[in-house]
Amino acid sequence: MMRTLIRGGRLVDPARRIDGQRDVLIEDGKVARVEPNLDDDGSCTVVDARNRLVLPGLVDPHSHLRDPGFEYREDIATGTAAAACGGFTSVACMPNTKPVCDNVAVVEYILSKAKREGSVNVFPDFWVKRPDDGTELAEIGLMAASGIVAVSDDGKPVANPDLMRKALQYAAGFGIPVISHCEEPSLSADGQMNEGFVSLRLGLRGIPSTAEDAMTSREILLAEYLGVPVHIAHVSTAGSVAMIRSAKARGVKVTCETCPHYFLLTDEACLGFNTLAKVNPPLRGAADVAAVLEGLADGTVDMIATDHAPHHADEKDLEFALANSGINGFETAFGLSYTRLVDGGVVSLARFVELMSLAPSNLLKLGRGTLAPGAPGDVTVVETGGPWTFHRATMRSKSKNTPFDGATMTARVAATVVAGRVVYQVEEMA
Amino acid sequence: MKELEADEIDLILENAATLKRILDSGNKKTAHLQGKSVVTLFYENSTRTRLSFEMASKFMGAASANIASSGSSVQKGESLLDTVRTIDRMATDILVMRHPQSGAPHGIAPKVRVSIVNAGDGMNEHPTQALLDFLTMKEKYGRLEGLEVAIVGDILHSRVARSNIWGLAKMGARVRLAGPPTLLPRELERTGARVCRTVDEALEGADVVMGLRIQLERMKSGLVPSVAEYARFYGITPERLRLAKPDALLMHPGPCNHGVEMPTLVYECPQSVIDEQVTNGVAVRMAVLYLLTARRNA
Q1: Using a CB-CB distance cutoff of 8 angstroms, which residues of chain B are in contact with residue A272?
Q2: Integer angstrom CA distances of residue A376 from A17, A419, A420
Q3: Which of A36, A71, B243, B287 might form a disulfide with B16, Cβ 3.0–4.6 angstroms?
């Protein structure tokens, strides 16, 4: 029997309202006991968590592993190694691979490769539409049985409102969440960055915030009318936050995520034609950043996603308009978010654990996000204090497209444990 | 122009004024660029800018060559960086570059040894155009400070407008802008310019009236309903030009759509300095090339 003992740390498990010194014993991949001062009988792999925080394993509801089809950017082995380094024990991956994850063969490929080569749990999202046609619904029911956790239009938004209506309606019948990438394509067409004074300064075509707001509004209206849930991906605008807040107050079953770059950076990061700050939705203005932070503080924003989007250096080292959109996020999301949100006093530590573990697990119905006995033995051990400086050269991801090189963080991942197996340990500990 | 300081702009204009005398002399040959090489690399069509850079380098004795994106390895899919590296390794001192993407020269410049002159990048900047516009204004008024400059037309897509807006603000001129609302970028007032509701309002009492080229694709993409409508509401007509100061300069970066931005009657009116702008373009480009090599030698 494989036994792992995480000893001496401060456990923060908001689902069980625990914040205190606990040891966590994992047996055969499941949490066996959670008590102060458990003894090692000599059979355990011991993770020293003294002076550290012990959290339910972090869950990323939105990432791109690029496998199959874009393995030169990332593959399941490197992507999950990067996720483990960033403290994630479970990641959901978006279906915009090549071929697109719109058939059972790709789902099974991802699951089997993740089992063979993956460091962390991988949960595939499925393409919302049928492969052969742009207007027919995916076989959501059949796919639910094959291991998908959500359907999404990420990267290529569903422009047709009637198709989205059907997707929401139909998926709800199977309890499969629909993750909507909110972007009205006719408003964002040809846009390179947020429309505003910075795009004017740089002479780049703008993407108006209304391109996101219009779709957020559409999804809320549909969800409200149908009485079914909808999840809004990577919220970046003040308008979206406000609409989601008021929809929630009316009882609409809307949830949403944001990404660290939407509360840490503004569109000014694009100055100098910095393609590392090119992302979709684009980095917005200061008022949007403030609104996203407010949404995190008051509970409007339910969770944090990385939108981990690795791109090869050649795809970023280009004229701004030709460069790909996306930020490599696994290895910075936790540290940067903790620094801004917890040390910055925006949310409590317990709420932060909900944002990065419990809420995404609940959205995707993973049965994780807590360390109750019987739950999967996925644990993230964290060291606080610092400051530590992030260097992109040390990244485990195959790509290094981050605008956060040189950023300082007041927390870092000390160890990542998946089903009792230590998949990452910070070097000083190893 | 965003990156240049006011005193640098002054220095270029002073040199341009001096070098312009060469153009009027019978012997258009100097040694300012002797032993230097200048390459022009244009990814977009150009008559004035390209030819004026070539003439400028030839008048000053540089070895010059030009590459168009058609007929070069660009057609084989060579990246901009690889193309510029190739030019760089042929002992080129100055590369004059026009590119349809904003920021293209900014991305390349740190990676090569050759000095790069931006001859227009996307919607971002066309700095030598603004400099030749400044020279033209200065010849008339002796100064830029305090001038009221009206720029009319497609501000959104215009690198000429942007370079003038940034540069004129540094030189103490006051800019008014007018055009179809769909062609005025968001937050335009934050440039410090006055955004006018009508062309009449922009032209009222102006010292300089500048038309901008409207690309006919803008009609197709629905930004402006029709050429006729543009000419009616945003054209610089003789009546509108009379709202400006009596001896106000009329400028246009060219090429002009006659009858759209302005009727031929206005294009050729006594106040028009559009032809003078072309000549000043050579002088300004001589100054830019000369100052760059002088700095490299220093």
Answers
A1: 106
A2: 18, 6, 8
A3: B287
Q: Are A358 and A306 in contact (CB under 8 A)?
A: no
Closest CA to A168 of A229, A257, A109, A240: A229
Cα B38 to Cα B95: distance, rounded to the nearest angstrom: 6
A165 with A28, same domain: the answer is: no
Q: What residues of B are in contact with residue A195 (Cβ under 8 Å)?
A: 186
Going by pLDDT thresholds of 50, 70 and 90, the confidence category of residue A114 is very high
Name the residues of A annotated as catalytic. Answer: 307
For A321, the closest chain B residue by CA position comes to: B101
Q: Determine the Cα–Cα distance for residues A274 and A319; give it in Å rounded to an integer.
A: 9
Is B190 an interface residue toward A (CB < 8 Å)? Answer: yes
Tell me if chain A has a CB within 8 Å of the CB of B15: no
DSSP A115-163: HHH-SSEEEEEEESB-TT-SSSBP-HHHHHHHT--EEE-TTS----HHH
CB contact (8 A) between residue A319 and residue B81: no
pLDDT value at A430 more than 50:
no
pTM score of the predicted model = 0.94
The domain B127-273 having CATH identifier 3.40.50.1370: the answer here is yes
- The answer to whether A83 touches A57, Cβ cutoff 8 Å, is no
Nearest chain B residue to A192, by CA: B102
Task: Note the CATH number of domain B6-125+278-297.
Answer: 3.40.50.1370
CB atoms within 10 A of CB A20: 9
Question: B291 exposed, middle or buried (CB, 10 Å; 0-12, 13-18, 19+)?
Answer: middle
Name the burial class of residue A124, with classes exposed (0-12), middle (13-18) and buried (19+) by CB atoms within 10 angstroms of its CB. Answer: buried
- The reply to whether A228 falls in a domain is yes
**Residue A207 forms contact with B (CB below 8 Å):** no
How far is A343 from A179, CA to CA, in rounded Å?
30
Q: Is B184 on the interface with A (CB under 8 A)?
A: no
Cβ neighbours for A89, distance < 8 A, ≥ 6 positions apart: A57, A58, A59, A120, A121, A368, A378, A379, A380, A416, A417, A418, A423
| Angstrom distance (rounded) from CA A84 to CA A380 | 9
Contact of A194 with chain B, judged by CB distance below 8 Å, is answered with: no
Query: Is residue A370 in some structural domain?
Result: no
The reply to whether domains B6-125+278-297 and B127-273 share a CATH topology is: yes
Task: State the Rg of chain B over Cα.
Answer: 19
Q: Looking at the structure, do residues A337 and A418 belong to the same domain, yes or no?
A: no
pLDDT one-digit tens code per residue, A314-348: 999 999 999 999 999 999 999 999 999 999 999 99
Residue A429 pLDDT grade (very low, low, confident, very high; cuts 50, 70, 90): very low
Instruction: Enter the DSSP assignment of A327.
Output: B
* Tens digits of pLDDT across chain B (298 residues): 999 999 999 999 999 999 999 998 888 999 999 999 999 999 998 899 999 999 999 999 999 999 887 767 777 778 899 999 999 999 999 999 999 999 999 999 999 999 999 999 999 999 999 999 999 999 999 999 999 999 999 999 999 999 999 999 999 999 999 999 999 999 999 999 999 999 999 999 999 999 999 987 777 788 999 999 999 999 999 999 999 999 999 999 999 999 999 999 999 999 999 999 999 999 999 999 999 998 777 6
**A204/B123 touch (CB, cutoff 8 Å), yes or no:** yes
